[in-house]
Amino acid sequence: MDLVKFMRMKMSDQVDHKEMYIFGAPACPGIVIGNTSLFQRVRPHITDTQIADDEAEDHIRKFYEAIDIAEEELEELLENTDLKASTDLIQMQIAILKDPELHDRVEQEISANNKPVDSAVESIFRNYLQVIRQNHGETFQNKSVDISDIRDRLLQIIHNKRDDIKEGTILVAKELSPREIISFSNRDIKGLITDRGGATSHAAIIARSMNIPTVVGTKKATEVINSGDEVVLDGRNGEVVVYPKDETRKKYKSLIAQQSKRQADFESLCKKPNKTSDGTPFTLQANIEFAEELSIANKYQAEGVGLLRTESIYLSRKHFQDIDHQVAFYASILELTAPHQVTIRLFDVGGDKFFGDEEKEQNPFLGWRGIRMLLEQPKLLKNQLRAIFKTSGDFMGRIRILVPMVSTINEIRKLKNIIDEVQKELLNEGINIDKEIPLGLMVEIPSVALKANLFARHADFLSIGTNDLTQYTLAVDRGNERISNLYDQRHPAIWQLIKEVAEAGERNGAPVSVCGELASDPIAACCLMGLGIDTLSMNAVVLPAVKQLLRSNSYADMQRLANKALQAETLDDIDNIFSNWETKE
Amino acid sequence: MIKKKVTIVNDAGLHARPAAALVKLASKFESDFYIHLYGYKVNGKSILGVMTLAAEKGAELELELDGPDEKEATEAITELIDDGFGEVYEDENE
């Protein structure tokens, strides 16, 4: 009997501390080991009792105290952030805290309905959120999150709940708002793990910009992790180890040591000139979607933005039509990247995504998207062009326009006519613009690559989008898991197409760059360089690795590598060529 | 008291940012300021109130101003709305 009991105790002991893995989406790379704090977005228990008439005054005072504290906190955050997006968000929240009608209604709820302060705040906010949802429908959802975030902060203050965040810990939370993440900036948070959210959510982007290793969307982190537990967070692949075993801890500790050494090497590497070992210069740029991503890009000395995606900023049709909103966005990117170039890609999604009511297409990737859609939606196109040209006056010579999904010369002609119109309108309105903005084409359709000589004559530059070019050339839908093994951007056929484009660009004086994923593979980057493409744009995180390999090899060697890749017959050949080239060093 | 009808002209309508601009401007004046739309009446100095309106492009607002500086306030607010809230962004960006 005693033995059984003993064993059971032993077992439960082990069960409690058994090493456990949970997985989410990697949102910011980096490995950390540490103890956790559970961050609860306390929607504390709301008191549902009634208060006596003579208590009302006290509750009203508590409400204004909470407003003052919340406002002070936000003002402090405002001083410590210089990101336009964050500033906007915080200023909106301050305006809400100052809302006189909010004050009146909460006071009224307390004194006339005898509600305690927390319950009054809760019900007044519920009321506003309801009306807003009713009147705006789905599109307002993002903004209403901000409003509930303010409510939650007020309730936390009223309940005197300091969050239980300890300095130097890894935070585990159901989900985090951008404001919450910004507010951690001065609290030495080592890492973030959330149940919900995706790697492209605004919160994840802010985490990346602050360089806090982050795993999001684990679904169950808050269920399986307790406050104070030791965890390993691997932000490179989205792995979290709870109760790590000694050997696991050891393994990760040495990885961390390697990483921090590499990080230090990276930063000193990035300050060195962009030249191959035999002195041929090259240019490395960043692909971005949000201003927040520029902090990493700048740290790694990206020379401008080779691809500014404009899709997610204008998720709603309303924003796309708001020219001032667009101008503010472009200007913030240009300010943060001075004195380099920024290549703005025109809105690039399928029509189905933008006009939800349109017919669903059977083959959206071969359908009404990119310039095909824009030319049929002149208002949308003109608004974007107006915004770009309006911005350009303050940033002469720094903007380039990139056109997605071009497949005919006629599309370029039509677009140029519209650009002329927009320029004339703005000049008539007395607005200062850059009349010489270069117009470039995305080379992502095989026919364009094959006829690159023709297209290069109609463009100021060409940018090869290897992601779609691969998918169209190999006829592989990369999202289809059953055939995804057939998708490889290093395919011999792709190298051949790239060579055509590089040569056509050279012949016609149109600079060629690559902004697809292929450029972020360091050896492939050397191979591209060997083909004469000296401008590469990629996710900023991989800049150091690419730069290192480009700097440590000679241009002559890269040309030899490119020649071999062009002679390869199969992907296996490419694999061999690339791995031999790597071990050679 | 002054009552005046104005139409929202900017494409995006009276969404969060214009609402913030409108409230900021209105708060500079002493006069009471209400907006009527679709049978709703909201306090024009309340950002939450203005956001609940969800006024789209083409929506006709009725402004109601009452107070010592009602004339100036009406003028300034009308101008802001007629301008599609354009100028205010630039002021705020500085």
What would you say this structure looks like, in words?
The complex is a heterodimer of chains A (585) and B (94). Chain A has 585 residues and is of the alpha/beta class. Chain A has 3 domains: 16-40 and 163-249, Phosphohistidine domain (Glucose Oxidase, domain 1), CATH 3.50.30; 53-158, PtsI, HPr-binding domain (Enzyme I, Chain A, domain 2, Orthogonal Bundle); 280-583, TIM Barrel, CATH 3.20.20.60. In chain A, helix 11 links the parallel strand 9 (283-288) and strand 10 (305-308). In chain A, helix 4 (100-113) crosses helix 5 (117-136) and helix 21 (492-508) packs across helix 24. The longest helix of chain B has 13 residues, at 70-82. Chain A binds chain B through residues 88, 91-92, 95-96, 98-102, 128, 131-132, 135-136, 140, 143, 147, 318-319, 321-325, 328, 331, 383, and chain B through 10-13, 15-17, 20, 23-24, 42-43, 45-49, 51-54, 85-86, 89, 93.
